[in-house]
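[job 0417] fold request received: Proteasome accessory factor C
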Amino acid sequence: MAKRPAAPRAQDKLIFLLSLVPYLIDRERVTVDEAARHFGLSPRQIREAVELLTVSGVPGDTRQYLAGDLFDIDWGSFEEDDEIVLTHRVALDDSPRFSAREASALIAGLQSLQRLPEFVDSDVIGGVMAKLARGASSAPGQLAVTESYSAHAVGIIRSALAAGHSVAFDYVDASGATEARLVDPLRLESQDQDWYLYGWCHLREATRRFRLDRMTVLRETDAEVVFREADVVVPTALFEPSDSDRNVTVLVRRSVLPLIDDYVVAVDSAPGGSAAREDSDAEVTATLRLAHHHGLKRLVAAHPGLITVLGPADARDAVADWAAAGLAQYRKTSGS
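[job 0417] inference complete; emitting structure tokens
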């Protein structure tokens, strides 16, 4: 014979009643049996608590409990379908609420956050979005934020890391050529909005770093990894120099230097003496070490108006041509 739940103590009953209202608000419609399972009580105890709730409230200006001063439920659903639906919430409806526009902005931000690899499949964020939608003064607009390829790729790589399998993908290298790679995944890391895979590349027979958004046809293989993170030295810096790298001279604001520190080889004195050297907004000449012009373009684009390429000439031309091509696209769109 099943053991009947024990009657709650007075203190436990108070805690339960204080928890019941937000529980019902969050779910909008819930059966008595579901609530009983959630709180570990009998259906009879839940019904008694709901009936007590309907004679509870906050007195109005007359200091008397009128109809609008009490919690209320959909009695038809409660008595006929054994469902609890709050139809009037005392005092809570008078609390400040987000407007539909404010709730939409917050939901859009949470959707963007949910698409980041580290938050993929986050039930917590989904729950917060649902609460924002329900708690707004009116229904927020319908929003959709597309999922990035990196978020999809992280799921595959994490699965391979957990299973000890290699991953295979086509990768666009520094020269713009596409090569097929077989890699033993070692570590996933993020830098700003970019995600990187550190792994043992079977093609190069060395540890390499790969940007996830430059991978295509990524898949987890059935092959067991040859190397794990404990077996090799994984680079700690985002940018690892090699013999094929090139030095580029730029004019950059001093305040930007910490943001590009991985690429800085040397910094010359700022023009204007010691006062300029102490000014975080002063411009300095710096030498950067980069693998290719593609990385230089991204660096300049990430800090618009703050980095000017001085040389060599082919690096300066590459950035100028890239900027001109982008401007031409805007003019083409505007003209059409």
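[job 0417] notes: Residues 313-335 form the longest helix (23 residues). The chain has ten helices and twelve strands.
[job 0417] exit 0
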